[in-house]
Amino acid sequence: MKTYNFKVIVEPDEDFDGNPSGWHAYCPALQKVGGSTWGETEEEALKNINEVVHLVVESMREHGEPIPEEPADQVEVTVEPRVAVTV
Hints:
Layout: E1 3-7, E2 9-14, E3 20-26, E4 36-39, H1 42-62, E5 82-86
Antiparallel strand pairs: 1-5, 2-3, 3-4
């Protein structure tokens, strides 16, 4: 088994008029394959992106697609949320 550790970004979202309209959450490493979602609260957006990351990784495995990893040579100290997936 291998554990993939994905950085996720959760940020406030706005409607077209600039009014607050929930929270946008995405995983930069998986964004091109559907790794983004939203929630009415920050906690809901984080919960939703956790589910999305797991679903995207599961789908990639089922289709034999390579699972992207963040560069191993970068040392990153962050307080941003992360999602771990063990497959």
